[in-house]
């Protein structure tokens, strides 16, 4: 069996860095034997990856789609430095898997990676696979607006492709646009694509750079500004959650199955949810209030309700759609396909400490500034 080369994007991020750490510690021999290369923005953080024993390929931006396509097509893993000049290198026989965690919202770079894999597959005959990271805000509804309400729990063994297509026709959303581009570009080019769609992620990351997630830390930071926990509207929206280590173990098992030639859902069936539990937004805010009061950094254990407009203004270039879908919606999912592959999440019990862990990490960061 030839060596597989895994090209990982977004390795300085929370998910990507944790995926890298998980793969490097994998007990699966066919992952241990894979060559892993990371595509990162700029030279400045190259040294962060020295302990991982991976090649680093620097670039400037996901907008460099010509570079990304050529890299996906021709890279042979032997001379990463040459890729700064788009130098042509001889293609040798290894297959390549791309794990894209760099951005769930950058449509053109995802398409360029898949098109590059198609170029490679045409030239070498080697099979390739594209694993893309997304989030369940793509299936979120609009309970505040309200322009669309989704009362159902969605299962990934149903036709999520058609569901996404229908939702996108009703209202475009950049992350969902990218999901559909991954589906459709893979189908058009005969490249196998699999999307792993994560809900709220909790737990400390294990990568070399960013070790904090997005949603819970964002609400904690906002509570510190208000001196009180906050929730958008009534906080009744329900989301699922997953520990970062359980999420990265799903990436690991998908790569293992791809490497051994076992079936992994792809094409229109190629979407895997990843969940272990469920919460409301108010649940998180109440936990923030309780922990913040206990740590003596919030003035009360009460939760302050804010409007969607006020919450949108939290960001300089605030986007009301992103704020509602990502921090106030319902996004109920059930991970059937991953469990059928043998995925067994183990860390749900740590959810009860998720807010406190992030709170302490954020306070530590602020004290060290």
UniProtKB/TrEMBL annotation:
One GO cellular component term noted in the UniProt record for this chain: cytoplasm
Location of the NAD-dependent epimerase/dehydratase domain: 129-263
Species of the source: Penicillium antarcticum
One GO MF term: aldehyde dehydrogenase (NAD+) activity
Protein origin, superkingdom: Eukaryota
Annotated signal peptide: none
Name the UniProt record assigns to this protein: NAD-dependent epimerase/dehydratase domain-containing protein
């Amino acid at each position: 069996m030839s060596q597989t080369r895994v090209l990982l994007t977004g390795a300085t991020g929370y998910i990507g860095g944790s995926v890298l750490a998980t793969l490097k510690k994998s007990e699966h021999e066919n992952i241990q034997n894979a060559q892993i290369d990371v595509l990162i923005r700029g030279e400045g953080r190259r040294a962060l990856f020295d302990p991982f024993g991976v090649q680093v390929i620097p670039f400037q931006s996901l907008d460099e789609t010509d570079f990304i396509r050529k890299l996906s097509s021709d890279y042979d893993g032997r001379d990463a430095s040459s890729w700064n000049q788009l130098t042509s290198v001889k293609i040798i026989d290894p297959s390549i898997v791309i794990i894209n965690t760099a951005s769930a919202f950058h449509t053109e770079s995802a398409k360029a990676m898949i098109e590059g894999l198609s170029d490679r597959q045409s030239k070498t005959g080697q099979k390739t696979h594209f694993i893309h990271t997304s989030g369940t805000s793509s299936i979120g509804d609009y309970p505040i607006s309200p322009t669309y309400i989704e009362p159902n729990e969605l299962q990934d063994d149903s036709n999520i492709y058609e569901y996404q297509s229908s939702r996108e026709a009703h209202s475009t959303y950049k992350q969902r646009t990218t999901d559909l581009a991954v589906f459709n570009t893979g189908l058009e080019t005969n490249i196998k694509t699999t999307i792993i769609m994560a809900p709220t992620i909790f737990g400390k990351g294990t990568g070399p750079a960013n070790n904090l997630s997005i949603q819970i830390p964002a609400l904690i930071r906002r509570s510190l500004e208000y001196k009180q926990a906050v929730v958008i509207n009534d906080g009744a929206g329900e989301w699922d959650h997953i520990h970062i280590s359980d999420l990265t173990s799903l990436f690991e098992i998908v790569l293992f199955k791809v490497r051994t030639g076992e079936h992994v859902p792809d094409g229109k069936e190629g979407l895997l949810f990843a969940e272990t539990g469920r919460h409301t937004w108010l649940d998180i805010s109440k936990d923030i209030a309780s922990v913040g009061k206990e740590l003596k950094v919030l003035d009360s254990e009460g939760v302050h309700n804010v409007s969607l407009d006020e919450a949108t203004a939290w960001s300089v270039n605030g986007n009301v759609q992103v704020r509602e879908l990502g921090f106030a919606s319902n996004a109920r999912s059930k991970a059937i396909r991953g469990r059928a592959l043998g995925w067994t999440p183990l860390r749900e019990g740590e959810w009860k400490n998720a807010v406190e862990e992030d709170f302490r990490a954020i306070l530590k960061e602020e004290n060290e500034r």
